Amino acid sequence: MTSLRAVTLRLLEQLRDDSVDIDAAHVVAPSSLEETAAILAAAAEAGMPTAFRGSGTHCGYGIPVSADLVITTTRLDAIVDWQPDDLTVVVQAGVPIDVLEAEIATRRQTAVLPEMMPGSTVGGAVAIGLSGYRRLRYGPTRDRVLQVRMATGYGKVITGGSPVVKSSTGYGLTRLATGSLGSLGLIGEVTLKLWSQPLSVATVEVDDAAAALDALYRPLAVLETSEGSFAYLGGAGDQIAAQAGQLGAAHRFGLVWPEPLTEPFQIEFRVPAAYLATAAGMARGLGASRWIAEHGVGIVSAGFATVDTGELAEARAWAESVAGALVVVAGSGIEFDPWGSPPSSLEIQRRIKTAFDPAGVCNPSILPGNL
Amino acid sequence: MDVPAQLTELLGASRVHTHPIDRLIYAKDSGVTAGDPAVVVLPETTEEVAAVVRIAADAGMPVVARGAGTGLAGGAVPCPGSVLVVLTRMNEIFEVDEIGHTAWVGPGLINLDLSDALTDQGLHFAPDPASQQASTVGGNAATNAGGPHCLAEGSTIAHVLGVELVTAEGEVVMLGGAAPDLPGYDLRGLIVGSEGTLGVVTRVLVRLTENPPSVATMLVSFDDINDAARTVSEIIGSGLVPAALEMMDRGMIEAIENFVNAGLPVGADAVLLAEVVGHPDGIAAEVDLIQEIAQRNNAREIRTASDDDERALLWKGRKSAFGAIAQAAPDYYLNDTVVPRTRFVDVLDEIYTIADAYGLRLMNVFHAGDGNLHPLVSYDAAESGMTEKVIEAAHEMVRVSVAAGGTLSGEHGIGLEKRDLMSQVFSADDLDAQARVRDAFDPDRLMNPGKVLPGGSRCFERPAG
Predict the structure, then answer these.
(1) How many domains does chain B divide into?
(2) Which of A162, A340, A356 sits opposite B425 (nearest CB)?
(3) Cβ–Cβ contact B428 with A under 8 A
(4) Of B210, B227, B262, which residue sits at a domain end?
(5) Fewest Cβ atoms closer than 10 Å to its Cβ: which of A40, A189, A300, B130?
(6) Distance from CA of B394 to the nearest CA of A (A)
(7) What pLDDT score was predicted for residue B460?
(8) Is B107 within 8 Å of B156 (Cβ atoms)?
């Protein structure tokens, strides 16, 4: 690592972020992507490992990064342009999801971002590729990121995608950025496709989640959890009553989501939806304190006080044998490879990483295959 | 041994073509540009495709993949000296997962054949481009194709979960899969819409969509296209997302009625076709809501169909559009731009003005719900200078769409047609980032070179006349 130029040090000092307590030599909060790109160019030149941070609610993804420089999105906190009649919003990365959703709810719209973690940022959800429970109905977050502006590891500001709801114009850089976990640079601003909220919504407790999914036409979500099974319905009032009647269960209006998992060690099975029941059974067998299985999606999230890593490795081998994965999403206290086997496309993945972060300073080694 | 001889040894003489007539047959897609492959091959397996790519790579020859050739942007036009890989023989449905609603299919499978094969399971493949009776799933993936029902369901990108890809080096990799959020970069998301420039897709894992329990289709006519536009805006603003929301303008209605008797109201300024799907108890309320909005905006007539025969009749006009155009003049140029949906009336006005200025006959049939415009010029390419004039006008129509906050293409892709317009929507740094992606997949730039990104070798020419 070469040393930082004086001008860079002055910039870092000027942009210092005192709002977070993180153990790193420099913690900065740039107020624009151009500043971010300048900082990243300097970090690349100095070979300085750099991490990115939103509100810090989901720091457990991937291989832990030890960074000398942390760039936060604290000052990228504006809802830039909401066009309710076009069902789009341009929003900066540091805006908390609940702030954005509250704003657009005034016109009964939703960005369908994850429901669970108040304070999590839009940029964090996009960088992780995190979707909410309603992906069963509306698809994953990555399908709603229409445009992305980012500062790359090579110190440029780039825009990918198009600002409209439909496009076949150039490569899908929005998909590449979504879920890239800060390994290519900092995602600073996204244009999201919005949905109108259903006329009314309801939660129904059911005995058999799989049977409920089978019986319903496009529910918002069907969750089987350690505390019971629930179907989430949206539509006109009559329609909800009819569908609840079909399930033979009483409904209550509103969406009552499970309490978030809070265990220090959490995993996700990500498997083809047909294997969901097996994965849920494994989560129970591994001794999960709590778990949530998303029917029709193929994700089982499970939290543990303690777990046998040998059994965990066996569960991972099974998940991979059905073309799925078992990943660690919060890894405190237990040593276990967060990702498992790297994808067959590792060589191309490596070239992509190198193309966007030639100096290897952006969240180094956070991805599978230590990319 | 030269390349055709090596390919013949691999595939047999019946699946390797070098005769000028064969090369001419495959020289074009459905757009206006022609190329000329050195050799045309028809592989039947992934291994064969991989071997073809390796032979071409060793010889430094470009590889261009092609499905049915219904594309309109020139993405499948073979550059001179290329190996053209025709994938139509790879049209199998390998396995259908009825629980997870997915299927692995060959890239050469025809879009509508896939949905037809799934009738008994109550499933279908949601992307429904107008070409769906001929276009292939692989081609749909390459262009990120759309269609009327992409309004609610999303374009092809939302319906391709994974691909098997033969890389530029001739290796086989799996990208994505049936499981959600697989670790690593979403390379599947880069492949869809990349128009064959990142490798050759040899199998596609498609997401299947449940057939709706009930469907209602409405045809609403207006004396003023502005009323139709306001109806679209108010429907979207009401919170309802119809399954489809299509519009035809006066010129299109007349052309269709001259061609088939679809019962469209000739003399109307615009016709809106709206479809809602869902639970039977919900649909009636949605139909009422659309009727109420349309009436408030001076609808002249509203027809509602609830059974399949009536629905087919209402869709007949929309689906006959391209046949109708063929009857009006020997050639047509179908453009494809997107604007914010609140802006489409203003942009349509400007597009009519452009057509008038060039003295061109313009008609519009388009996906109003998502602002995806398809201005269509019917003309005779045999008239000297006509094709050039049509293309010039088309580029102006793109410019006004972009100026309104839109983009170059909603569902046809960039190909050759709009490659040199990319700098209207992307900066040099943006294009450089896309070129980095391309080079990561294809360092030697042998996969469908000269498409999508500008600045490639200009090795194409338009057919004479």
Answers:
(1) 4
(2) A162
(3) no
(4) B210
(5) B130
(6) 16
(7) 38
(8) no
The two structure tokens encoding residue B238: 């009401």
For B237, the closest chain A residue by CA position comes to: A85
Q: Give the pLDDT of residue B318.
A: 86
When pLDDT is cut at 50, 70 and 90, the band that residue A117 belongs to is confident
On whether residue B317 sits in a domain, the answer given is: yes
Q: Which residues of B touch A242 (CB under 8 A)?
A: 279, 281
Can you tell me the mean pLDDT for B74-100?
Answer: 96
pLDDT in tens, A244-270: 888 988 888 899 999 999 999 999 999
Q: List, in order, residues 6 or more apart from B383 with CB less than 8 Å away.
A: none
Contact B182 A325 (CB under 8 A): yes
Q: Is B282 on the interface with A (CB under 8 A)?
A: yes
pLDDT in tens, B221-230: 999 999 999 9
Our CA dihedral for B374, B139, A137, A283, rounded to 10 degrees, sits at: -160
Q: What pLDDT does B386 receive?
A: 95
Same domain membership, residue B99 and residue B153: yes
Q: What is chain B's length?
A: 465
Residue A237 has pLDDT above 80, yes or no: no
What pLDDT is attached to residue A2?
Answer: 60
Flag if B179 and A324 touch (Cβ within 8 Å).
yes
Domain annotation covers residue B29:
yes
Whether residue B206 is found in the same domain as residue B218? no
User: Does the pLDDT value for residue B437 go beyond 70?
Assistant: yes
Do B113 and B38 share a structural domain? no
Examine residue B446 and state whether it is found in any structural domain, yes or no: no
Residues pairing with A270 in the sheet: A299, A325
CATH assignment of A79-196? 3.30.465.10
CA torsion, points B442, B445, B446, B449, in degrees to nearest 10? Answer: 120
Phi and psi at A158, nearest 5°, equal: -130, 155
B438 close to A (CB below 8 A) = yes
Name which of A136, A171, A218 to mutate to probe chain B: the one with the most chain B Cβ atoms within 10 A of its Cβ: A171
**Are B106 and B154 in the same domain?**
yes
Q: Which residues of B touch A273 (CB under 8 A)?
A: 99-101, 178
State whether B440 and A348 contact (CB < 8 Å): yes
Nearest CA in chain B to A62: B183
pLDDT at A238: 79
Cβ pair A159:B430 closer than 8 A: yes
Return the structure tokens found at B246. 């299509």
> At B236, which helix (H) or strand (E)?
helix B225-237
Query: What are the residue ranges of helices labelled H in chain A?
Result: 6-14, 33-46, 97-105, 122-128, 135-138, 173-177, 209-215, 237-247, 276-285, 309-321, 346-356
Question: What DSSP element (H or E) covers A268?
Answer: strand A265-270
Do B256 and B236 lie in a common domain?
yes
Rounded Cα distance between A54 and B62, Å, is 44
Contact between B375 and B362 under an 8 Å Cβ cutoff? The reply is yes
Please report the number of interchain residue pairs, chain A to chain B, with beta-carbon separation below 8 angstroms.
264
Find the CATH number of the domain harbouring B372. Answer: 3.30.70.2740
B8 and B55 co-located in one domain = yes
Contact assignment for B409 to A179 by CB distance below 8 Å: no
Domain boundaries, chain A: 6-74, 79-196, 200-253, 265-331
pTM of the model: 0.96
Q: How far is A254 from chain B (nearest CA, A)?
A: 17
Q: Of chain B residues 14-43, which have a CB less than 8 A from chain A?
A: none
Q: Assess if residue B424 is contained within a domain.
A: no
Q: Which domain holds residue B31?
A: 3-86
CA distance A138 to A131: 10
**Is the domain defined by A265-331 classed in CATH 3.20.20?**
no
Closest residue to B340, CB basis, from A86, A171, A349: A86
CATH architecture of the region A6-74: 2-Layer Sandwich (3.30)
